[in-house]
Amino acid sequence: MNIPILFEDDDILCVDKPAGIETTTGPSGNQSIESLCGQNNIERGGIVHRLDKDTSGVCIIAKTPHAYASLKKQFADHAIIKKYITTVYGATPEKGDIETYIVRDPKRTQAMRALTYPTGLERGIPRLAITHYTKIKGWHHEHSDISLCEVRIETGRTHQIRVHMQSIGHPVLGDAMYFSKTSRELSKKLGIDRQSLHAQELTCIHPTTDETITITSPLPKDLESILTSLSMNNIYILVGPSGAGKDYLLEKLIALQPDLYVIPSYTTRKPRVTEGIRPYQYVTELEFEKAWKAGNILEKVVEHKHLYGTDKHAIDTALKSGKTAITVVEPRGVESFKKIYKERVISIYIDPGPIADLERRIRTDPNRVGQTQKEIKTRIERAKKEVAYKETADFLVSNTDGKQTDALRQLEHIIIDTSQGLTKQ
């Protein structure tokens, strides 16, 4: 295994430790940073500090006795600045300081635990540990919150960050030793198979030149892919029964947030006199089926003998270019979105209120001038069934008669809050 070198001169070697490998070689002769550096014919002065096996990032090695003594003293004096990046379970405060003692857990051989005050009965010597964290960003994944934090430690106790974050109710995701039931379940859903903790930056005084040097490690691919997945723009879908006012709210919302990308749809029906803001591609049934089979249409819904479906290619193109997409979808089509785009889909149910009001809206819909009584009856019956979908939506917006302005305000706040990583309801 080739270990990436971040910095090297005659005195020190800074390497980019991958997860899954120990820092030092144990009695069993396991492969480690120490042994691998030896295999690369690098004269070893000494491993100056350790990273946990499943923690990645900057690891510094002294190449001379002088460098070893200098760096060990800097670590002992807490003069070295160590910054980590981690994803943790839950919504953390914007900033926080954690100061406790860390001792060995009497119930678990390899584990440590946080202790507010020593009692004298601890297993081993209680050691003071100080951790500072700053929240960089937050997301919501299904029914859980996630926080991306930058962590700085003044001390370097065993498992310090992992123990401290768990002690305040925000365990590091992927941690197999310090976890909660919900954090472990979330880690599995996200595909995190090691603690998501990365030693991103180390600042020290060079042993020979006395210059301040900062060594930085790029985020490894496994953690980067998790953050990329979480950070991708959302897809908002407005759902609700016919007559709920979805298109009206969409049009008003776009006037307030013009950067939102309205996803076009395919349909086999004829253009109406007034279409609103939603773009349509009017196609024949043959053209629709061809696009469907080619995978260009996300879902296929039949309404009044006409086919409807969302342009999947347009969604993918919009997301790749950094746009946030929005559309109106029949409740029956929601699952097709979530199957492909998963947690990025945010469904917002537009609630029209009492059924009697909904029926009146359907009968007087200005966009459906000329609809037959049979068509009206069909729309009303289907609308009554579609009301049940509000139980599964991520958000609910009340759009009762006379309250359209309030509904628009609710909708706008949902878009703003969730785009900033705030919680779903």
Automatic annotation (TrEMBL):
Database matches in InterPro entries: GK/Ca_channel_bsu, Guanylate_kin-like_dom, P-loop_NTPase, PsdUridine_synth_cat_dom_sf, PsdUridine_synth_RluC/D, PsdUridine_synth_RsuA/RluA, RluA_PseudoU_synthase
GO BP terms in the entry: enzyme-directed rRNA pseudouridine synthesis
Domain of life: Bacteria
Positions of the catalytic residues: D52
Residues in the signal sequence: none
A single GO molecular function term of this UniProt record: pseudouridine synthase activity
Stored PROSITE patterns: GUANYLATE_KINASE_2 (PS50052)
Residue ranges of domain Guanylate kinase-like in the record: 233-416
NCBIfam families, A to Z: rluA_subfam
Similarity comment: family membership: Belongs to the pseudouridine synthase RluA family.
Protein name per Swiss-Prot or TrEMBL: Guanylate kinase-like domain-containing protein
Species assigned in the record: Candidatus Berkelbacteria bacterium CG10_big_fil_rev_8_21_14_0_10_43_14
